[in-house]
Specification:
The structure holds two protein chains of two kinds. Chain A has helices at residues 18-34, 39-58, 92-95, 109-116, and strands at 5-15, 63-71, 76-84, 119-125, 129-137. Helices cover 35% and strands 32% of the residues of chain A. Chain B is globular and about 50 Å long. Classes of the chains: A alpha+beta, B alpha/beta. Chain B: It comes from Micromonospora thermarum.
Chain lengths: 139, 137
């Protein structure tokens, strides 16, 4: 994935409760508005962030999120990195399948979030946690 | 934790979600609504999501669950006021909002419930004479 050049200091937010998931949504919304994403793109990005932040909390046992404005020379975008130090994902292909869940949800969080963003990268290893990086570029 | 207020208007319970709900608030709303349906005997629930700027899979599932619970408690649920950007995002996310009726605004939602109840009443009248012998398909 193209990560782009970071503009300014990224903003961090810890995820340890479902109130923090709400704060992540608000932070992402603020940055998305500042980067001038369209209303539909803002909505898609905030929705993806909500799914991924919940995953960090529920499956990763909590973690951190970092939101940054990035530039790839042609467009600006919002990059969000979700990191946890939880158990990791044993079968990534399975976890990215629509409808697959181990948590009693709808199984749309990871696969749905991937469809809502422009760049999606996931790194995970057993007992080493999971890091998900997403970017949404302005049109 | 914030709590979403539930208003009773005639035979309908109106829920207007005005806050960015935490998951816990959403679950609480589900429970509060079930209790209010039973306590009031209302036959309709209108959930206004005009103020919601996103509906993610958790809130989507909550809406479906509320619709199912209401149905079991003899009440119709209509979700109203979904923003266009939210609708586009929901579809791309892969959420179908199974079993949920929707209307553009609160007024139409209330009309929809009234007409659904009227239809059901008429059907019951028709079916009455041989209700015991006619098995539903």
């Amino acid at each position: 994935m193209t990560t782009g050049l970071e503009l300014g200091q990224p903003q961090a937010q810890a995820i340890h409760s479902d109130e923090d998931v709400v704060r992540v949504r608000q932070l992402v919304r603020t940055v998305a508005v500042a980067v001038k994403l369209s209303l539909v793109d803002q909505t898609k990005l905030v929705t993806a962030a909500s799914e991924l932040a919940r995953n960090t909390l529920v499956y990763g046992g909590g973690g951190t999120v970092e939101v940054a404005t990035v530039d790839n020379g042609r467009r600006r975008g919002v990059r969000i990195i979700f990191a946890d130090t939880g158990p990791g994902i044993p079968d990534l292909d399975l976890a990215l399948t629509d409808g697959y869940t181990t948590g009693g949800g709808l199984g749309l969080g990871l696969s749905g979030a991937r469809r809502l963003v422009d760049e999606f990268d996931i790194r995970t290893a057993p007992d080493a946690g999971t890091t998900v990086t997403v970017i949404k570029w302005s049109r | 934790m914030e709590r979403v207020p539930i208003l009773k208007i005639g035979d309908i319970l109106l829920v207007s979600i005005q806050v960015d709900m935490s998951d816990q608030t959403a679950v609480q709303l589900q429970e509060d609504l079930a209790e209010r349906i039973v306590a009031t005997g209302c036959h309709g629930v209108v959930i206004d999501i005009t103020a919601l700027d996103i509906v993610d899979s958790f809130v989507g599932r909550m809406l479906s669950t509320i619709a199912s619970i209401s149905k079991v408690l003899d009440a119709e649920t209509v979700v109203v006021g979904m923003r266009p950007a939210v609708a586009i995002t929901l579809v791309e996310l892969g959420l179908s909002l199974h079993g949920i009726r929707t209307a553009l605004n609160v007024e139409r939602g209330m009309e929809l419930i009234a007409s659904a109840r009227a239809d059901e009443y008429a059907e019951n009248l028709d079916a009455e004479p041989d209700a015991e012998t006619t098995a539903s398909p």
